[in-house]
Amino acid sequence: MSSTPAILIYGDPVLRRRADDVTAIDGNLVSLAEDMLTVMYGEPGIGLAATQVGVEKRLFVYDVGDGPKAVVNPTITERDGLWLYAEGCLSLPGLFWDVIRPKEVLLTGWDLNEQPIEVEADELLARLFQHELDHLDGVLLIDHLEAEQRERALGLFEAISTGAGTLMAAGEHSEHSEHRKHSERSERSKDSEHSKHREHSDG
Ligand SMILES: [Zn+2]
Predict the structure, then answer these.
(1) For residue range 155-173, what is the model confidence (pLDDT) as tens digits?
(2) Could you tell me the CATH superfamily of domain 13-197?
């Protein structure tokens, strides 16, 4: 476990870089995916991009309740509808923001057995795919916020990071921290009350 990678937190420049295409699905990549899953399962998260553990390769892992999965060189080829969801990120821990994104996507890529995959995703899974793909492009959740909201978000994040605003921040999002350890990865909350009931980050 000592070699388990740590999750990079907002502010780390690697999170802003575009990850490189994977050129070979080999033992190293499989080990990386396994390590990433270990990290992800240790957190209240349902997805994790390689970028988040400092590896600039186009790979992400996820588990929305039906077992661990990995996607190599993912692409979203179709998008449809819009969906509002309180989205979180393990690189901005403890914070959630309402973000509207396409409700359905078609994801293509490769699995770790070098087989092509194609997944039609809706709602939570579609959100996860978009979130992880963003990571591989150096895009973060806060980039989807309005300027004013982003400023407030970063202030809150900074306050939490330094510990100065922990109480205030915890007051606003206390449900998350209290229930983190009871996180149900497959749980999804309803639109109107999602902020109060969110228990996991998208990745
Ligand atoms: Zn994330």
Answers:
(1) 988 888 887 544 444 444 4
(2) Peptide deformylase (3.90.45.10)
